[in-house]
Write a structure and sequence with these properties.
117 residues; 0% strand; 5 helices; mainly alpha
């Protein structure tokens, strides 16, 4: 894994570890947001579990490239859901920045792992 790939995988891994932990722990702000969006509590906990799985894949993926690919795809899946939610709620564009950046980082990770040639 290149230096760029390692930095992207580690950065995404840490972010998704924290985000998943907040969802699974029932952080007050996170719970309020999921209620505002009209999602059942199981959606919050499932999202948190998927984020934790993505984080684990990304961090293990620093040593095992195929696992990092799985992590990046999970990030893209979760961020697609986040973007669809923000669109449905007509949230201000400032709220869209984080999911767009995280999605782009996952794409960059995948591209950085393509074989050269």
């Amino acid at each position: 894994m290149s230096t760029l790939s390692t930095v992207l995988a580690a950065g995404l891994g840490v972010v998704f570890l924290a985000a998943g932990a907040a969802k699974l722990a029932g952080n007050e702000r996170v719970v309020a947001n999921f209620k505002r969006w009209g999602y059942a509590d199981v959606v919050r906990t499932t999202t948190g579990a998927v984020e934790m799985l993505a984080a684990a894949c990304l961090l293990v993926g620093i040593a095992v490239n195929a696992v990092a690919i799985t992590g990046a795809l999970l990030v893209m899946f979760v961020m697609t859901g986040a973007l669809m939610t923000h669109g449905r709620m007509k949230d201000p564009l400032a709220i869209w920045v984080a999911p767009v950046v995280l999605f782009a980082m996952a794409v960059a990770l995948l591209v950085s792992m393509l074989p050269e040639g």
